[in-house]
Design the sequence.
């Protein structure tokens, strides 16, 4: 089921946004993206995992910075969306509208992905010189802020320097976002590590609400982060993961990156769902129960 009669105001790779004036309805679909493409298959329960993990983190990190959340209760849905309450339950957030900053605030605590490629090429990360001798998945001496531009669907995000971020939004705003990004990541990775999950890197998005900087969009989900099992962590190689790296790896092995991405095999879809749910359960300490089942049980 989807929201068939109400057209989204805008649609991202995964989320559908509905403009309600001074508020937004953010709906996390089960779509999955990789290499900046939206894949043709959906991952069951993915939207619920993204939303419920974001809600957990927004509450956990509220002491560091405020956020845009108003409600995730179906009782607070605007009238035009109440016919779709069963679909929306567990996968939406009603939020205050924010004036968004034009960068994605990426922070890295371990060497992986494009950060590893930069280090191998020139010994730096985000322009900062790193110690010699680091290997794939090495823990960094301290978290590093590596912002990027925001790309439209089908385009690629572009890593930028802190100085370029200052040019885009002013040095005061860039300095504030860097500080908040590192503080949020540092608190989150301590919690996750205690629960058996390494957060290798993640991205945050921020905006201003009534002139105050606020945390917005998804927060510390398998879509926006690299989650690794702490008990299997071994530097010097790529890691097992609880995120969509599994899908990226399958695509790398089975697609030449030309044309549209292929369909995922059933076993890849099932395993990806399992990985997302495992991440939720480890981080929150709660068993994942689909929202429909919770509603049927009166919870």
Sequence:
């Amino acid at each position: 089921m989807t929201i068939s009669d109400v057209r989204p105001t805008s649609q991202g790779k995964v989320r559908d946004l509905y403009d309600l004036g001074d508020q937004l309805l953010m709906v996390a679909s089960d779509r999955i993206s990789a290499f900046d493409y939206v894949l043709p298959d959906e991952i069951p329960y993915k939207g619920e995992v993204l939303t419920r993990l974001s809600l957990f983190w927004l509450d956990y990190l509220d002491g560091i910075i405020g956020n845009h959340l108003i409600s995730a209760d179906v009782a607070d849905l605007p009238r035009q969306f109440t016919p779709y309450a069963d679909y929306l339950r567990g996968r939406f957030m009603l939020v205050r509208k924010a004036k968004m900053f034009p960068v994605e605030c990426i922070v890295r605590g371990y060497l992986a992905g494009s950060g590893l490629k930069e280090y191998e090429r020139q010994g730096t990360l985000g322009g900062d010189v790193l110690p010699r001798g680091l290997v794939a998945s090495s823990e960094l001496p301290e978290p590093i802020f590596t912002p990027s531009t925001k790309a439209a669907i089908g385009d690629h995000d572009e890593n930028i320097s802190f100085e370029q971020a200052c040019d885009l939004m002013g040095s005061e705003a860039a300095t504030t976002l860097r500080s908040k990004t590192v503080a949020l990541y540092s608190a989150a990775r301590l919690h996750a590590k205690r629960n058996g999950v390494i957060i290798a890197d993640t991205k945050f998005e921020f905006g201003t609400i009534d002139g105050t900087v606020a945390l917005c969009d998804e927060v510390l989900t398998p879509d926006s982060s690299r989650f690794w099992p702490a008990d299997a962590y071994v530097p010097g190689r790529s890691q097992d993961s609880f995120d969509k790296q599994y899908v990226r790896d399958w695509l790398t092995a089975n697609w030449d990156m030309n044309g549209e991405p292929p369909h995922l095999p059933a076993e890849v879809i099932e395993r990806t769902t399992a990985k997302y749910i495992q991440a939720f359960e480890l981080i929150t300490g709660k068993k994942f129960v689909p929202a429909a089942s919770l509603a049927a049980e009166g919870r």
